[in-house]
Design goal:
The chain is α+β, with helices and mostly antiparallel strands. It contains 22 helices and 18 strands. The strands form four sheets. Strands 1, 2, 3, 5, 6, 7, 15, 16 and 17 form a nine-stranded mixed beta sheet that branches. A hairpin with a 5-residue loop joins strand 1 and strand 2. It is globular, with a radius of gyration of 27 Å. The chain starts with 6 loop residues before the first helix and ends with a strand. Bound molecules: zinc ion. The site of zinc ion has 6 residues, from loops.
Length: about 600
């Protein structure tokens, strides 16, 4: 083994020598690293990775197809005849593809053929996976099957993203670096995902709803992880939040709060919420190990309830800290008739309003709230950006609406004499699409759309539908809402149908506090990663804390097109590692550290 490269060496070596060092990152395609080297110096490996992805993006479709076609088939002829590059042999061997059973081998060959016929290029998968330690053959085959169903344009992008991931892992090997903290967080998340509610656990699905046995076991594991990581105080509060405190260098300091939720939706992903707990826990573990203290108390909270699954009490965990706990919730029952009060008692919580009200924080004690969260969307993944700076959590408005026309015979009513309620909604739906797109960063959805009692041979007389309209600030959202409602009125008048609308939800946008957003920006920039600012389309615990203190969020790229609320939700330990480093930077730059 030769000694590992350093970034300094790479930045200062003559180009041919540096190119030789980077040989093999991209299969049979040295032009990518050569073009990247022309842009030296690299600020970090993350910087180099991003540059290379950009070079492939700019190279155009023909060059991209050539790059993809330079790759061997998975478990294909080249593997069998031992004609792979050293890197590919190592990767396919590590994934156990050389030890396929005859059935698995036959399945992979059939998939290879089907894939190549559909897309015209070989299936490429970073078989070392998001943790770098290898996917199982079953996972590989399942991924292969899913990707076969993708749209060809999307699949081209997915192939390139896998190629960049392969290059990332190969680059790490060359530099002898591993995302140590990212791996640590990854492993904690795997461990935590072993707890799941009955009925889901058996099926290998992750479901952790408020105060079930699995939920309490998850809380205990988080508690233990915090203790093992050197937190000074760890406790479970009256609503089941796990609260860890890492004390400041001097007593009486203000507090910085962070955290996210550990409950999940049904059959959800392992990272939604939980990433925002373990990333700061890893930061405390590092501070504690180095004997360092911050000039402020650092409070990491694993919120017990955010998803509103077992009880309709969304954001219960973070809401309780700002004095928002609806007393009626205690009497609310779940699908099995168990009241929240009973569930709390069963979990050993006091189950009294007094204890819950005592959780309310004094905003004056706090510097602010920051939250790390997986993006839950496709944007960062598509742009090859590992991290995103959240500018605002979108404000949203929801309506349930109904259009009433005239139900009539589908055979005898001429087209120009109809009062079709569903067509009025169809017209509105297309308008919503255009109107939201016009803003660039607004979104509008008609998610429920039904014709009550409709039948094949009847012109729809009624159509019930919902509207979900969101934008990064309230003014932008309200302007869109006004336009959409005005359009609905116009359409209905023209078509001679009636409509009703009822607002069912209204949440204010939560723009990031400029100074905290800037701290995230400096932290991300310090990693050599480009800044990408974006609104959050989904709601988060930070929205609640926003009501009483400044807040700002950091997003981490999700794999699989950023899918979330789904078992395919995933992120790499390399991206998690960058999130930990960004958080460390934010903590230490904000007032510096002190040794014990
Ligand atoms: Zn979440």
């Amino acid at each position: 083994m030769t000694a590992s490269l350093t970034l300094e060496q790479l930045n200062t070596a003559p180009a041919p020598e540096a190119a030789a060092w980077l040989a093999g990152l991209y299969e049979h395609s040295p032009w990518i690293t050569e073009a990247a080297l022309a842009q030296r110096p690299f600020r970090s490996l993350a910087h180099l990775k991003h540059l290379m992805a950009g070079i492939v993006r700019e190279a155009g479709r023909e060059a991209q197809l050539t790059l993809i076609r330079a790759h061997p088939e998975l478990a294909g002829k080249a593997m069998v005849s031992r004609a792979l590059t050293a890197e590919s042999t190592n990767e396919q061997g590590k994934a156990g593809l050389t030890d396929c059973t005859p059935d698995e081998f036959a399945r992979l060959q059939a998939l290879n053929t089907a894939y190549n016929t559909r897309f015209g290029f070989p299936f490429i998968l970073a078989v070392r996976g998001p943790r770098g330690t290898g996917m199982s053959r079953q996972e590989i085959i399942a991924t292969f099957e899913q990707r076969l169903a993708n749209h060809p344009d999307f699949e081209l992008g997915e192939a390139l993203r896998n190629i960049h991931r392969i290059a990332e892992l190969r680059l790490n090997d060359k530099f002898g670096v591993a995302p140590r903290l990212g791996n640590q967080v990854w492993d904690w998340q795997e461990e935590l995902s072993k707890f799941s509610d009955p009925g889901y656990l058996e099926k290998g699905q992750l479901t952790v709803t408020y105060l079930t046995d699995a939920h309490r076991a998850a809380a205990r594991l988080i508690e233990q992880t915090m203790r093992d990581s050197g937190f000074d105080e760890v406790s479970v509060d009256a609503v089941g939040n796990v609260v860890g405190r890492y004390r400041a260098a001097a007593p009486g300091a203000k507090i910085l709060m962070t955290g996210s939720h550990y409950d999940t939706v049904r059959n959800g992903g392992k990272y939604d919420g939980r990433l925002g707990i373990f990333v700061p826990v890893a930061c405390v573990a590092e501070l504690s190990r180095a004997g360092q203290r911050l000039p402020f108390d650092f409070e990491v909270i694993a919120f017990a309830e955010e998803e509103g699954q077992r009880y309709k009490a969304t954001f219960l965990g973070s809401g309780a800290l700002i004095g928002q706990f609806n007393p009626a919730w205690l009497e609310q029952t779940d699908a099995d008739g168990i009241s929240m009060r009973e569930a709390m008692q069963h979990a050993g919580l006091p189950a009294t309003l007094e204890a819950i009200r005592a959780l309310q924080r004094q905003p004056a004690d706090y510097l602010g709230f920051v939250e790390v969260h997986i993006e839950q969307g496709p944007v960062l993944n598509e742009l090859d950006m590992p991290l995103g700076i959240v500018t605002s959590i979108n404000g949203g408005v929801r309506y349930t609406c109904e259009v009433t026309g005239m139900a009539s015979h589908a055979g005898t009513t001429p087209m120009n004499r109809r009062r079709d309620a569903a067509l009025a909604v169809a017209e509105l739906a297309l308008y919503v699409e255009q109107r939201a797109a016009r803003d660039g960063d607004s979104v509008g959805t008609i998610g429920i759309w039904t014709v009550p009692g409709g039948s094949t041979n009847v012109v729809p007389g009624r159509c019930q539908f919902t509207l979900d309209l969101r934008a990064p600030n309230d003014a932008q959202r309200d302007a869109m809402v006004a336009d959409v409602l005005a359009e609905l009125k116009t359409i209905c008048e023209r078509r001679g149908v009636h409509h009703t609308t009822e607002q069912t939800m209204r949440a204010a946008a939560a723009p990031s506090a400029p100074d905290w957003q800037q701290r995230w920006e400096k932290a991300v920039d310090s990693l050599g990663v480009p800044l990408y600012r974006m609104p959050s389309g989904a709601g988060h615990d930070a929205m609640k804390l926003h009501e009483v203190m400044p807040q700002a969020m950091l997003f981490v790229r999700g794999q699989n097109s950023g899918i979330s609320h789904n078992p395919l939700e995933s992120t790499t330990s390399d991206d998690i590692d960058l999130a930990v480093q960004a958080f460390q930077h934010l903590l230490t730059q904000f007032g510096g550290t002190k040794h014990d």
